[in-house]
Amino acid sequence: MFFYGFQSVRHCRVTYSVKKKLSHREISGDGYTSSRMPKKSKLKLKPVDMGKETLGERLARLRKERGLTQKQVAEQTGLVQELVSNYELDKLRLNAEMIVRLAEVLSVTTDELLRGKKKSTASSRRQPSLKLLRRMEQIENLPPYRQRALLTTIDGFLASSQDR
Q1: Which residue of 39, 104, 106, 136 is most buried, as measured by CB atoms within 10 A?
Q2: Residue 101 domain-assigned (yes or no)
Q3: Are residues 105 and 61 in the same domain?
Q4: Rounded distance, CA 95 to CA 113, Å?
């Protein structure tokens, strides 16, 4: 029993695809097809804990914590907003370069972006969100009597929430 297959033949610096009659030996064993089939890995790797949320969910959470929109993240990373949305919805996989870019924009380590775990160091403090920083700038531009009134209101609000 013979099967027909294609074999590349190089002739005068030009490669041609030639139809060739294949024997049973070329089809099975270590012949024609077995060298092209991927082999199953023999490595016994432990599963990596990536946290409970997906990479896209983590990306969206970190972006929102910093008060950024998808459009702002897109502009800072050189993407379009639709790609940021697709990354957050886990429709696209992030490559290494995009992970580094997004980590820089979100002011996190790549490890925190990928695993969701923050390395515990004495110098790593939670940074205020961009939204909060913008509001603080607006408060600083208010006249002093309005700043005092606003801070009194905020202090009262915080005191009542701690009593609960």
Answers
A1: 106
A2: yes
A3: yes
A4: 13
